[in-house]
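For the sake of transparency, this paper describes our internal protein records without simplification. Because each token names a local backbone shape, the row as a whole describes the fold. One such record is reproduced below, unchanged from the form in which we store it.
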Amino acid sequence: MRWLKHAFAVEPDGPAEPNPEQRELIDRVCREVVKRHLTTPALAFLEMSRPLNFMSSQLLHFLAPLISAVSDAQGHRRLADFLEHRGSIDFISGRINALESESAATVPNTTRHPARVSNEKHDAQPGS
């Protein structure tokens, strides 16, 4: 009956831990998301796709021949292997949040857009 003991075992809850190659790839993707100011849409997409992360990893494996024709062949395999783990979405979401916090701490917070400020000065002149 030893074989039955772990037949239905699942991974523990919480973020998965990627290997160094996967971490580098995930950091690169997360930095691009933060750099392009797509944090909120990316986090919403990740939360919506949480139940399907294993299926998306299998889709990446299925599309490997097409993806490798236009992209890094090993990169998408590393990402697909990481997405197979239960806590992969938690790790990616946490990494995006951490990079967003770092970005917000280094960039001064401006509440007004520079172009808008110049238009407001122009509109505020008397006699126009």
Summary: The chain has one domain: 14-109. The chain has eight helices and no strands. The mean pLDDT is 83. Residues 14-109 form one domain.
